[in-house]
Design goal:
Layout lengths: L2 H4 L27 E13 L5 H5 L3 H18 L3 E7 L1 H6 L10 E8 L3 E10 L2 E11 L4 E12 L2 E15 L8 E3 L2
Antiparallel strand pairs: 1-2, 1-7, 2-8, 3-4, 4-5, 5-6, 6-7
Length: 184
């Protein structure tokens, strides 16, 4: 999965989700500084698979442990997650770089305004292809909503994910949250 899909863990739904690179296109979303809470609701179809040739190299016990770990991770990925992040004025002023995740990926910024951000990322590597579209909308400076749609194919096995994101500003004081905190 892409960094953006795995990292659904930050206020404004994007602080960690977008990869950093030398590209200097900056996210322009306008948000208030302070404590933000973001809730993600993922829906996944398909499953992550380990290539059969790798499984054949394992003992039956190793194979069982790996398969159980993959199933547990897939179950956890389907759960609602709630995170809190302290968005300091410095974080907001610095913005978030948009760019590619490497030579096999291309990122296209579709919309980038103070109220809307849409990014499309396509990656193609040997036995691994993925397309991710992220779309966020600010409702004022204290609410963000969005979606992340990802379609992946690994060794010919498809996996799709649709995640809705809701973020709300909780207040100007971050309390004990220094950076990011997983609530649920």
């Amino acid at each position: 999965m892409s960094k953006s899909t795995v990292a659904l863990a930050c206020a404004l739904g994007i602080a960690v989700m977008l990869p950093v690179s030398a590209d200097t296109t900056r996210v322009k979303l306008a948000a208030d500084s302070g404590l933000w809470e973001v809730t993600t609701h993922p829906k996944i179809s398909g499953s992550f698979t380990i290539p059969e040739e790798q499984l054949q190299k394992m003992s039956p016990e190793q194979r069982a442990r790996i398969e159980a770990a993959v199933q547990a991770a897939m179950g956890h990925a389907k759960e609602e997650h709630v995170m809190r992040e302290c968005m300091t004025p410095e974080k907001l002023a610095q913005g978030f770089d948009l760019g590619n995740e490497g030579d096999s990926c291309k990122t296209t910024v579709v919309h980038n305004t103070s109220t809307e951000l849409e990014v499309r990322r396509e990656c193609n590597a040997e036995n691994d292809a993925r397309t991710t579209t992220e779309h966020y909308r600010m409702s004022g400076r204290r609410h963000i909503s969005g979606t992340v749609d990802a379609a992946m194919s690994q060794n010919g096995k498809p996996l799709t994910m649709h995640t809705t994101i809701e973020g709300k500003w909780l207040g100007s004081d971050c309390g004990g949250v220094k950076d990011m905190q997983v609530v649920k």
